[in-house]
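Exam review. A common question shows you a sequence with its structure tokens and asks you to describe the fold in words. Practice with the pair below. Do the first one on your own.
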Amino acid sequence: MEQLNYKVLENSGYDGYILKINGKEIAQRVGGWQQTALHEITSSLKPGKNTIEISVMNENGPTALIGELRFDMPDGKIILIKTDKSFKVKQTAGKGT
């Protein structure tokens, strides 16, 4: 398996979000939906299949998420995976709803 040098997840989600990789919480952010956050996730990934879960919160309406996963390959190639309609989405009601 080819070794990856650098993996970064960049995302933004309304009132806040919780980022988990393989079931472990990696980051939490409150507010600031107009600015993206960078998360270096190299140490959280394992060889083979990985699960990235982002729970997005918004107290004043529907939620949304914009994200991009970047892989810098040893040969200099960059692979980008951007959120789109192919991503699995699960909607749940928050507290008090």
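Now try the second one, then compare your answer with the model answer below.
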Amino acid sequence: MMSRLAESHLLEWLPVSACIIKAQFYSKFNKLTFIQVYALTMETEEGKVDKFYDPLQSVLQKVKKHDILLMSGDFNSKSGTSNRNRRSHGNTWDRRDE
């Protein structure tokens, strides 16, 4: 759901795949390109991973240099106890073993 103002500034809405959506908005200074992703885990078969990253790369290459680019989403996420003591951005996922 989108506000009427946001909807009036929407230039493009492109569902690239089941895991990637691109939206482009007109803003006061530049166009804003927003890409939402839900990435596969590294345990996924290599062929499926390529089928995810190839369209993502294609979408990114089409974003103009002067556009504002925002990417958001779940990049290679995995939950569960197997992630104990795994570091991400300087923090540990689970400190119960310390």
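Model answer, second protein: The longest helix spans residues 46-62. The chain is about 25% helix and 35% strand. Full marks require stating both points clearly.
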